[in-house]
């Protein structure tokens, strides 16, 4: 099992979690966990946690530091 470091874990409107994480093999990525436990996201890699966070928010259509639209 590979190690993972979580950089951001945000609660998003609509009972979702936005997770930004780092793995040595794939740099930074994001995933969204829905209220039903489904994990969704893209396969892109990002070279900074902020870039992954920005893209995750854009992907969800959310802006701002507090996760509001």
UniProtKB/TrEMBL annotation:
It comes from the Bacteria. This is Uncharacterized protein.
């Amino acid at each position: 099992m590979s190690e993972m470091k979580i950089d951001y874990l945000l609660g998003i409107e609509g009972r979702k979690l936005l997770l930004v994480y780092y793995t040595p093999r794939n740099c930074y990525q994001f995933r969204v966990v829905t209220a039903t436990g489904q994990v969704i996201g893209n396969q892109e890699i990002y070279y900074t946690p902020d870039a992954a966070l920005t893209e995750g928010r854009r992907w969800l259509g959310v802006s701002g530091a507090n996760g509001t639209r």
